[in-house]
Structure formats: C-alpha cells, structure tokens
Hints:
- With about 400 residues, the protein is of the alpha/beta class.
- About 30% of the residues lie in helices and about 20% in strands.
- A 6-stranded mixed beta sheet has the order 6-5-2-7-8-9, sandwiched between helices. Strands 11, 12, 13, 14 and 17 form a 5-stranded mixed beta sheet that branches. A two-stranded antiparallel ribbon has the order 1-10.
Amino acid sequence: MKRAFPVAVMVALLFISSTGSVFATSPKKDHDFISRFQNLIFLVDVSDSMLSGYPQAFDHARLFVATRALRLFNAMMPPVPLWQYDLNTALVTFGDCGTPRLVGMLSPWFRKKHDPEYPILRLNGWGPWRTAGFQEGLQVAGQLVAGANGRTAILVLTDGGSIGECPQAVAAAMKDKFGDKVQIYGIFFGDMEGGWRNLYEVCKLTGGYARTWEEVRTCKQMKDFSWDILVREIMFPYPEIFFKHKSADLLLSEALKLESVANFLHAIPQYMLQIDGHNDFFGDTKPNYELAMARAKNVKQALVQTFSVHPERIAIRSFGEELPLYDNQNPEMRQLNRQANLYLRLPLRNCPYNEKKLHTFDVKAVGDIFNTQERYSDNEWAWPDTPPPGSSGFPKPRTR
C-alpha cells in the first residue's frame, strides 16, 4: 500500500537539486578511483528512544553518539577528485515530528558541508504523540532517489526503531522499483535484538549491510567503512595483444582482454588510450610498419564496435620493427614482438607529478600514465583542457 507524502515534504522535495558537481579541492590527490554511488543520503533517527543512554557509555545519549558517527563518517570519506566524479549528499531526519525533515538538500558534497546541520538534527522538546517512523524516513529517501541521477547509497543511523516489518516492506519496495540504483547501509546504536534485526534486514534487502557503532568508532574503522561503501577500486590492466606471424587478425583469446580495457575507459572517461603496433624484424621495414599499423587499427576497431568506446579517445601508431619490447635475438622471445601494446594517456593541461602513476588505494599499478601537456607551474591542479569525447562536458573548477 502506497503512503501519501505530506504536502510540506513534497513541496520541499521539489527544490532538491539532484545534479551538480563537487568543487571542493584536496591539496593532495594520490589515488585514482571512481565512486560506486553518485548520491549519498544520510537518514538519521532522532526519535525519543535515541535520547536514551548509549549502552556502552550510558552517560551519553544515543543521538549524541550518532551525531559523532555522522561527523566522523564525513571526515573519513574519500576526497573527491575534481575531474573524476561528483558526489551529492542529503540529510534527512525522522522521529521528532509528524513527518520526516529534509534538513540538508541533495547537493554537491564537500568535507564540512553538514557541519551547520549537526546541532539541529532534533527539534527542541519531546516529539508529538505520533511521529514519523523508520519506514517513513525510508519513503522520503526513496523520493530523493527517484529524483536523483545515478546510483544512491542510503546510510541509516538508528537504534532500530520499534519491532515490526514496515521498514523491511519499504526497503523491499525500493529494491523492486530502483533495483541496483539504491543500496542501504546502517550504523546501529541500540541494545535490543529487535532493533538490530530491523536495521539488518532493511540493509540486506537492498544489498547493503549494517555495523554497530563499536565496529566503526575509530578513524581507521570508519575510513574502511566509508570507503567500502563509496569507492570502487579500479585498475587498468595494461594488456599486450598478440598476433600470429604475418597476421593482423585479432584472435578471440586476445580480444577477450579488451573487455576490461573498455570497462576502465567507460568508468573514468578522462583517460585516453594509446595503442602502439609492433612487429618482429623478419621481412622488409615498410611491410612490417604497415602490418603493425593494421594490428593497432584492428584493436581500436574492436574497442569501438564491440565495446562502444568513443573512437576519438583512442590514438594509434605503428613502430613496425623499431623499438621492440622483447629481444629479437631470442627465438622464444621475439614472437612476443608481434603485438599491439595498450597504455593510458592523461591529456591534462597541468598534471602534478604524483598523478603520472595510476593508483588504486595504496598499490601502484604497473605501467606509466603519460601526461601529454605541460603544467604552467608546480602549484597548478590537474584539469582537462576539453571535455572527454562523447561526454556532455564538465563544469569549470573553482574552490570554496
């Protein structure tokens, strides 16, 4: 049964901005990653039960501890590289009035965005006899998901609410409607098995999971938690595509390598792909050059036609028999020179030196990313001169 939303909530939702870009910069960028979600909704329980003492530190109210968790989560969230992805956040509370409150609109996230909202999570005094419950908070979050672009994560901070199946029914309905577009995660501050089961089942139904505050209370624990939710690890494979002697036909076994290349290029559209064709030193120089170029062209054609990579993002060239990657004098090795070699180019006007390597968390991938343009000064931040081919463009960078 669908629940009607109060007029005040619906009017507020009309003013939600579900698009936009993050303009806050980080002084150091040492990771290349993409976000699993383009939107993050914080759903905070501020009901009367959250004014009870926290079980492991009864002198502190559960709401006080939840506010601390919300602050820590925002502090530990990964920095958002300007030229890789945007992240929008919103803040919704439930349990202190008849309808959930949209405290913070869905808009671009930056590190201190929600700082002014922490002191006003709950209205003064005790709530009315009938207040919005967990399921109604999820319904408002669902309205935000419906109006947002991209995938959305919902982080619920609660002691679980009353025992019952209403929140689970709403979560199941959200999963049916949005599919993989939404996932729910949770942090639990209560001590009742029914409350924990409530939150656990809501998260599980959408493919997410829940943690107790004791499991995420340190900076390292919260960083691991927030990064696990928000960051998808990405690594470019740097494959070599091999060919038969005197052939430019793409073998099926080699073509399968291109799927991961295409997935990377689709995930981070700012990178360009360079394909270099090679050949061994048998035969004449000109035919070897032409054969190596044909190999590079066939690899590009497969990426464009089979995996829908924009052709302007791929550059090809031939080295023929020159600059062999393997020893031509070794009979077992020289056949490896019949190949096309793939690597990334980073066409940025100003690229800091520490960004010439591709990082995935603390592990560097093998291979170089070649910067194609020089910076004007050592202090300049990386930013593409032009939008990636096939994209709808990007906003100009600015700082807060």
